[in-house]
Protein backbone atom coordinates (compact mmCIF):
# COMPACT_ATOMS: atom_id res chain seq x y z
CA UNK A 1 0.00 0.00 0.00
CA UNK A 2 0.96 3.63 0.03
CA UNK A 3 2.36 3.83 -3.51
CA UNK A 4 0.96 7.18 -4.48
CA UNK A 5 1.84 8.97 -7.64
CA UNK A 6 1.81 12.15 -5.60
CA UNK A 7 0.39 13.84 -2.54
CA UNK A 8 -1.81 16.83 -3.29
CA UNK A 9 -3.39 19.28 -0.92
CA UNK A 10 -7.12 19.78 -1.34
CA UNK A 11 -6.48 23.47 -1.94
CA UNK A 12 -4.51 22.56 -5.07
CA UNK A 13 -7.34 20.47 -6.50
CA UNK A 14 -10.16 21.85 -8.60
CA UNK A 15 -13.80 21.55 -7.55
CA UNK A 16 -16.12 20.30 -10.32
CA UNK A 17 -19.55 21.67 -9.49
CA UNK A 18 -21.36 19.43 -12.00
CA UNK A 19 -19.74 16.12 -11.11
CA UNK A 20 -19.44 17.07 -7.41
CA UNK A 21 -15.80 15.91 -7.30
CA UNK A 22 -12.42 17.41 -6.70
CA UNK A 23 -10.01 16.67 -9.53
CA UNK A 24 -6.35 17.01 -10.28
CA UNK A 25 -4.55 16.50 -13.61
CA UNK A 26 -3.09 13.03 -14.16
CA UNK A 27 0.05 12.60 -16.32
CA UNK A 28 -1.91 10.26 -18.59
CA UNK A 29 -4.08 13.15 -19.76
CA UNK A 30 -7.09 12.25 -17.65
CA UNK A 31 -7.50 13.42 -14.10
CA UNK A 32 -7.65 12.09 -10.55
CA UNK A 33 -11.02 12.43 -8.93
CA UNK A 34 -12.37 12.23 -5.39
CA UNK A 35 -15.86 13.16 -4.25
CA UNK A 36 -16.85 15.17 -1.23
CA UNK A 37 -18.62 12.10 0.12
CA UNK A 38 -15.37 10.14 -0.04
CA UNK A 39 -13.63 12.95 1.79
CA UNK A 40 -16.40 12.98 4.41
CA UNK A 41 -15.82 9.24 4.87
CA UNK A 42 -12.16 9.91 5.63
CA UNK A 43 -11.03 8.52 2.27
CA UNK A 44 -8.02 10.35 0.95
CA UNK A 45 -7.17 8.41 -2.21
CA UNK A 46 -8.09 10.03 -5.51
CA UNK A 47 -7.87 7.60 -8.43
CA UNK A 48 -7.54 8.27 -12.12
CA UNK A 49 -10.25 6.39 -14.02
CA UNK A 50 -8.01 5.96 -17.08
CA UNK A 51 -4.89 4.52 -15.50
CA UNK A 52 -3.85 2.83 -12.29
CA UNK A 53 -2.31 5.89 -10.69
CA UNK A 54 -3.62 7.27 -7.44
CA UNK A 55 -2.81 10.34 -5.40
CA UNK A 56 -3.19 10.98 -1.73
CA UNK A 57 -5.29 14.01 -0.94
CA UNK A 58 -4.11 16.12 1.97
CA UNK A 59 -7.13 17.65 3.67
CA UNK A 60 -8.90 18.15 6.97
CA UNK A 61 -11.77 15.64 7.31
CA UNK A 62 -13.51 18.03 9.69
CA UNK A 63 -14.10 20.39 6.78
CA UNK A 64 -16.23 17.73 5.08
CA UNK A 65 -17.88 15.99 8.02
CA UNK A 66 -21.20 17.75 7.55
CA UNK A 67 -21.50 16.93 3.86
CA UNK A 68 -23.68 13.99 2.80
CA UNK A 69 -26.85 13.59 4.88
CA UNK A 70 -29.18 16.45 5.64
CA UNK A 71 -29.17 16.28 9.42
CA UNK A 72 -29.38 19.91 10.37
CA UNK A 73 -30.55 20.12 13.94
CA UNK A 74 -29.05 23.35 15.11
CA UNK A 75 -31.28 25.39 17.38
CA UNK A 76 -30.43 28.82 18.64
CA UNK A 77 -32.10 29.78 21.89
CA UNK A 78 -33.09 33.37 22.52
CA UNK A 79 -32.05 34.04 26.11
CA UNK A 80 -31.88 37.82 26.32
CA UNK A 81 -35.54 38.71 25.77
CA UNK A 82 -37.01 37.36 29.03
CA UNK A 83 -34.12 38.77 31.07
CA UNK A 84 -34.74 42.22 29.64
CA UNK A 85 -38.42 41.98 30.54
CA UNK A 86 -37.66 41.12 34.17
CA UNK A 87 -35.25 44.05 34.40
CA UNK A 88 -37.89 46.43 33.09
CA UNK A 89 -40.48 45.16 35.59
CA UNK A 90 -37.98 45.70 38.41
CA UNK A 91 -37.49 49.30 37.32
CA UNK A 92 -41.25 49.75 37.22
CA UNK A 93 -41.61 48.43 40.78
CA UNK A 94 -38.90 50.84 41.92
CA UNK A 95 -40.86 53.66 40.30
CA UNK A 96 -43.96 52.52 42.19
CA UNK A 97 -42.08 52.63 45.47
CA UNK A 98 -40.96 56.16 44.69
CA UNK A 99 -44.54 57.08 43.81
CA UNK A 100 -45.76 55.62 47.12
CA UNK A 101 -43.21 57.76 48.94
CA UNK A 102 -44.56 60.84 47.21
CA UNK A 103 -48.08 59.85 48.20
CA UNK A 104 -47.16 59.51 51.85
CA UNK A 105 -45.30 62.81 51.65
CA UNK A 106 -48.39 64.48 50.22
CA UNK A 107 -50.48 62.94 52.98
CA UNK A 108 -48.09 64.25 55.58
CA UNK A 109 -48.64 67.77 54.23
CA UNK A 110 -51.98 67.64 55.95
CA UNK A 111 -50.07 67.31 59.21
CA UNK A 112 -47.60 70.21 59.27
CA UNK A 113 -46.22 69.32 62.65
CA UNK A 114 -45.24 65.83 61.55
CA UNK A 115 -43.47 67.24 58.50
CA UNK A 116 -41.54 69.67 60.64
CA UNK A 117 -40.38 66.83 62.88
CA UNK A 118 -39.32 64.67 60.00
CA UNK A 119 -37.47 67.55 58.32
ZN1 LIG B 1 -4.33 8.70 -15.35
Mean pLDDT: 78
The amount of helix comes to 25-40%
Q: Based on Cα principal axes, name the global outline.
A: rod-shaped
The count of β-strands is: 6
Keywords: Iron, Metal-binding
Catalytic activity: [3Fe-4S](1+)-[protein] + Fe(2+)-[Dph3] = [3Fe-4S](0)-[protein] + Fe(3+)-[Dph3]; 2 [3Fe-4S](0)-[protein] + 2 Fe(2+)-[Dph3] + NADH = 2 [4Fe-4S](1+)-[protein] + 2 [Dph3] + NAD(+) + H(+)
InterPro entries: DPH3/4-like, DPH_MB_dom, DPH_MB_sf
GO biological process, one term: protein histidyl modification to diphthamide
Question: What do you see in this structure?
Answer:
- The protein has 119 residues and is an alpha+beta fold.
- The protein has two domains: 6-64, Microbial ribonuclease fold, CATH 3.10.660; 80-110.
- Helix content is 34%, strand content 21%.
- The protein has three helices and six strands; from the N terminus they run ββββαββαα.
- The protein has helices at 36-40, 80-108, 112-118, and strands spanning 6-9, 14-16, 21-25, 31-35, 45-47, 54-58.
- The strands form two sheets. Strands 1-6-5 form a three-stranded mixed β-sheet, with no helix packed on it.
- The chain is rod-shaped, with a radius of gyration of 36 Å.
- Bound molecules: zinc ion (ZN).
Summarize the model shown.
It contains 3 helices and 6 strands.
List the SSEs and their pairings.
Layout: E1 6-9, E2 14-16, E3 21-25, E4 31-35, H1 36-40, E5 45-47, E6 54-58, H2 80-108, H3 112-118
Parallel strand pairs: 1-6
Antiparallel strand pairs: 2-3, 3-4, 5-6
The chain binds zinc ion.
Amino acid sequence: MGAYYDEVEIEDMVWDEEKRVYHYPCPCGDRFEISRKQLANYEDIAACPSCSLVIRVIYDPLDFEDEPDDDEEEEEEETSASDADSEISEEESDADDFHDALDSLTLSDKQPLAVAVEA
